[in-house]
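Why run this: before we spend reagent on co-expression, it is cheaper to look at a predicted model of the complex and decide which construct boundaries make sense. The entries below are exactly what would go into the expression plan.
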Amino acid sequence: MGFISRGFRGRRRDTASSSRVPPGQYTVTDFPVLSAGPTPRVNLENWTFSIEGEIDEPKRWTWKEFLALPSETVTKDIHCVTKWSKLDTTWKGVSVDTLMEGVETAAEFSTVFSDGGYTTNLTLDDITGNKAWVAYEFGGQPLQPEHGGPVRFLVPHLYFWKSAKWVRGIRLQKDEHPGFWESNGYHIRGDPWQEQRYWGD
Amino acid sequence: MARAAVLGRLGCQLGTLAELKPETPRVSSLYLDVPKWPGHLAGQHVDVRLTADDGYQTERSYSIASAPEDRRLTLTVERLEDGEVSPYLVGELRVGDKLEFRGPIGGFFVWEAQDERPLLLVAGGSGIVPLMSMLRHRASASRKPPARLLYSSRTFEDVIYMEELARLAAAGDGLSVHHTLTRDKPSGWTGYTRRIDAAMVKDVAWPKDTMPAVFVCGPTSFVEAAAQLLVDMGYEPRWIKTERFGATGG
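The model came back. Tokens follow.
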């Protein structure tokens, strides 16, 4: 082993949860907020969620239509690249598999885009197969604006910047286009179990 | 150097604590000698990694307080009593000890003095730290835009960098510093004594037609409030860069 911090003992993880906490992460019980700019005000009157790009017929749902889609409630551990992990978070929303039903596409990549201009890139493989949701409830309550409400992306197996707040749609693409943080020093995929935090990790 | 600081793989660095300077009762600055520091941009952070002798490791992110031009890399750390890392950095670490970290990190919440737009910095508590890097960078630049800082602290003794901020503002190079205290009203105090509000923002912020560059850093509730007040004033959201920290940390 390399360097040792003189005089550092540290807290030990409790063994029950340690297998669920990726390397370099620590658990929190509150829900920290991180965003790069002001919280956008989202008007549900003209809100839509779209699937566009490499798709013959773009799909679009109004807020009312979106709420009428079959929903799922899932309990997941989430991991932020800033080192906190939060275990057993419960979300309600629509599975991306449900949104992608009937979609035929040659795309292997996607850009998830949000109000306020935020984007993040994800492979199609990372958002399909029961791995990603478009969530509108957290802990049984409507999702708060600072946490991405009314609707945020949820892709818990990757670092949480991939779970875009204030999400408005998915753009299907044949090529990989780095999103906002992915263009600003952060890893293109962001798998917490491989500690893919930054460029080159 | 500037872009190189953002690009490329982030290796581990070992710094040596050269000086530990108390800033407030809860906050200290760590001045580090880092032999292979690649340089950084004002506003970036580092990930500090602590390793116990049994191999246990933990990491936290800390904003860089020093300017890219400064000789030593400086981190300013608030000691959180229930934290795991900050009580070590502010309490256990001594001059001569080594500290391991990765960085610099972050390519968005950064400012360079050649940006000609008027600069507005809004800080809550230890959110001043990355903004101080910007002000120190600005102070050493030959050409610089006008700048205003609005800085909210709980009490007078919680104000970090009080003297240096006064000195920078007195340099007459177009910087003004505006303090507000939310839980204190010392006698002779000429700054604000309330939470940030629309009237305060209107007093301090550049008129919207100057299209300023804005950086807001502080606790989540502070950043939410400040950014919203600026948007309400007519600022474009894309002018405003934010960095928040929740109640947790380390």
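The longest helix of chain B spans residues 128-140. Residues 119-245 of chain B form a domain with the Rossmann fold fold (CATH 3.40.50.80). Bring this page to Monday's planning discussion.
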